[in-house]
Task: structure prediction
Amino acid sequence: MSSARAAGARTPGKTIAMAVLVIIAVLAIIAGVIYLIEPAKSLPSVLGTITSPASRANATRPLRGAGALVIGVLCLGGAWLVNRGGSTARR
Result:
């Protein structure tokens, strides 16, 4: 009886880490798109609604949107790395 896993098998920890990273990535990308297209006064309260001054309330939040998109892409990259980790041949 051997407790060694097959060469290409994923451990439950890697599967959970990959799932968490993908969920965070999807949420960050959605938040980034919302930041880029919605004016600050129309944002959901979770994302930080700004109602005054009027000049800021009518503007979008491009810096926050870009930041959220970058975080989303980095999380997707991390999930890809976790998924492919251990696929190299062992000697």
In short: DSSP finds three helices and no strands in the chain.
